């Protein structure tokens, strides 16, 4: 066991068009369970040797005090800790200092910077967050997703590069960043999938690991995600179990992806195997997909009523109206 990602909530201060969790910035906000994530992390540390816990959302800092306390408690487990945030809390340098000062012991803060977030989170807020991290000596890096990481020839990707250039020139230092392509699931699949699928054909390769983390083999517990509602997943809307219904240690000790009704198909046949299964329920396989994640996502949408206890949480299956 190496990494636990704690997806606290699906509420956000933004509504980005690439969000694979379909996060919303609605007025109704559901208060997360802050006790269970620590308890799960402690069990994992005691039984499997957990190395790292990552707190994310949605936007976890909607609950600033509680998120701060959770990160501080996780740090007492003597594991690495990271906060993933869009910096919506950094209305000024002073605000950023006030929020980050209690988190000086955290190992890393990942800040979103891209053309998807920019309509909701002004670049000035990211700049305040970076300035505060530098002042306090907190390690940070930018997460910069692209629609097309190779060509970057669309308005959103050009905006992402423009934003980074503005920050770099204003600080005059090398700003640490992680660049990567989006995966076409959730809102990204609904909004961009078909456009970026043209001419790419039908993916026929196997799916042995999720693409949003290293060391993320599906048949391994080196990466697990605790999601709202207590579901343990790999982050793609396919549940391994639920911590409110079964013991996390027993769940993971008994986990074998080759025995799992959905993961086994992905490992043995790839997403096309799920699509062929979905054909029995009316799915029509298309000529082109943006990536194998889009194929898997669309197949799972059809299969969900028939595997509803496994294709969880439901948030992953909300469809964006076109």
Describe the structure.
This protein has 322 residues and is α/β, with parallel strands linked by helices. 34% of the residues lie in helices and 14% in strands. The protein contains ten helices and nine strands. It has helices at 35-48, 64-75, 93-100, 123-136, 155-171, 186-197, 248-253, 263-268, 271-279, 292-303; strands at 3-7, 52-56, 80-85, 108-112, 140-146, 177-181, 223-226, 231-233, 239-242. A nine-stranded mixed beta sheet has the order 6-5-4-3-2-1-7-8-9. A hairpin with a 5-residue loop joins strand 8 and strand 9. The radius of gyration is 20 Å and the shape is globular. The model has no long low-confidence stretch (mean pLDDT 96).
N- to C-terminal distance? 40 Å
Widest beta sheet: strand line-up: 6-5-4-3-2-1-7-8-9
Q: Tally the helices: what do you get?
A: 10
> How many E-type strands?
9
- The secondary structure category is alpha/beta
C-alpha-based Rg, rounded:
20 Å
Helix content percent band = 25-40%
Biggest beta-sheet profile: 9 strands, mixed
* Percent of residues in β-strands: 5-15%
* pLDDT < 50 stretches: none
Mean pLDDT: 96
Order of helices and strands: EHEHEHEHEHEHEEEHHHH
Shape: globular
